[in-house]
């Protein structure tokens, strides 16, 4: 009896195209938000820029969950291509407007339209991704995607800054339109595994409720969602605002923030590279728990470090363990989600990841103001460590496997 050899995900040509297309799309998102903030500051003030950026995120967050049933009801690839095409059109229009006149209300209007169109992309991407791979490839497939997204997030902000410096908002929007076209060209070539036959006459509201019932009643996905929520609550505050506050308190200044974030980025990249070669198939809950505790130790270490060097080393640990933890959570979720609900599950996960970010950032800021940065950071570390509890206490999660 012979056993079929499953090649690593990075050797699957169409999956590489998928990762490239999604990464380029995320790169375009980052360029746009940097260009939007720059243009708003030129017209008004940093405070107004913050309000505009917050407004631009509202339709994206609201429609992200609402986009889940669409991804399950219609062709996910077509939705991704359509989102890329519409965002390219919006960016071309924004570039033309910027050449003529840049009024604040026009920027707000473009931001709202962009956020609305952008919201469809992520649930559709989450629905499509598992259908390009075999179950045994989900772990290293998630690792390859992590590398692609990490590269896009790292390059997007500097690229956006360089573009607006050279040619202002018009050039940034024009180049951004090109990124969405490139993403479109990559994604339209994909040939995912066909979905099982799904009844599509269910009303939209009923489909949304069915997705929530599916998540809340699933013995594996329900605790995984709790782990994801605790992980993100403990993580996004320190990484998005905590390190800046810490660097200010310690006198490390702007260079210190850069070094701390760079340490995290290097650690996350190394962790993803390791996961490309190491397939964790059994006792995944234990691996996730170790990652959560390790990240908590890294956050606490950065907080209590007596100098910048040790703080940077601690953020490397956060990235090194956080990357694999996220990869294991993603692959276990994909392996346990029925095809009929992939879009809705992906949309809720995205909300738990992106939706909590502004709320947690605000909470960490308030706590730091009331009790000090150290207390706020250590509190976040405790929440991060608590994500390990469901993984260790629930046998079904502790012994979970991907096969």
From TrEMBL:
> Is the Isomerase keyword given for this protein?
no
Record bears the keyword NADP? no
Q: Which InterPro entries match?
A: Bacilysin_exporter_BacE_put, MFS_trans_sf, TM_effector
Provide the protein's localization: Cell membrane
Q: Which residues form a coiled coil?
A: none
Q: How does it sit in the membrane?
A: Multi-pass membrane protein
Q: Which CDD domains match?
A: MFS_MefA_like
Keywords on this record? Cell membrane, Membrane, Transmembrane, Transmembrane helix, Transport
Major subcellular site: membrane
Q: Which domain of life is it from?
A: Bacteria
Transmembrane residue ranges: 47-67, 88-114, 162-187, 223-246, 252-276, 283-302, 308-330, 350-369, 375-395
What protein name does the entry list? Answer: MFS transporter
């Amino acid at each position: 009896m012979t056993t079929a050899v499953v090649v690593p995900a990075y050797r699957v040509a169409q999956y590489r195209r998928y990762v490239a297309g999604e990464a380029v799309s995320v790169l375009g998102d980052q360029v746009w938000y940097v260009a939007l903030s720059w243009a708003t500051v030129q017209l008004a003030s940093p405070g107004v820029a913050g309000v505009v950026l917050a407004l631009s995120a509202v339709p994206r967050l609201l429609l992200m969950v609402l986009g889940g049933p669409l991804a399950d009801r219609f062709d996910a690839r077509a939705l991704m291509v359509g989102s890329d095409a519409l965002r390219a059109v919006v960016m071309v229009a924004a570039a033309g407007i910027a050449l003529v006149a840049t009024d604040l209300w026009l920027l707000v209007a473009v931001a709202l339209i962009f956020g609305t169109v952008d919201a469809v992309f992520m649930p559709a991407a989450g629905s499509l991704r598992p259908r390009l791979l075999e179950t045994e490839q989900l772990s290293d497939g998630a690792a390859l995607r992590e590398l692609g997204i990490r590269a896009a997030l790292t390059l997007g902000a500097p690229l956006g800054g360089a573009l607006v410096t050279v040619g202002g908002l018009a050039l940034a929007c024009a180049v951004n339109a090109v990124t969405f076209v490139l993403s479109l060209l990559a994604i339209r070539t994909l040939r995912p595994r066909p979905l099982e036959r799904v009844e599509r006459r269910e009303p939209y509201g009923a489909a949304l409720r069915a997705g929530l019932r599916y998540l809340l009643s699933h013995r594996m996905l329900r605790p995984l969602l709790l782990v994801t929520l605790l992980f993100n609550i403990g993580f996004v505050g320190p990484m998005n605002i905590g390190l800046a506050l810490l660097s200010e308190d310690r006198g490390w200044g702007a260079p210190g923030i850069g070094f701390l974030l760079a340490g995290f980025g290097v650690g996350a990249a190394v962790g993803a590279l390791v996961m490309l070669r190491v397939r964790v198939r059994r006792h995944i809950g234990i691996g996730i728990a170790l990652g959560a505790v390790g990240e908590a130790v890294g956050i606490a270490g950065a907080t209590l470090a007596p100098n910048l060097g040790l703080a940077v080393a601690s953020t490397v640990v956060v990235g090194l363990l956080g990357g694999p933890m996220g990869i294991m959570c993603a692959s276990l979720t994909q392996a346990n989600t029925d095809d009929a609900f992939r879009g809705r599950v992906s949309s809720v996960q995205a909300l738990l990841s992106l939706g909590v970010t502004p709320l947690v950032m605000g909470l960490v800021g308030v706590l730091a103001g009331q009790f000090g940065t150290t207390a706020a950071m250590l509190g976040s570390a405790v929440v991060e460590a608590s994500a390990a509890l469901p993984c260790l206490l629930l046998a079904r999660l502790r012994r979970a496997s991907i096969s």
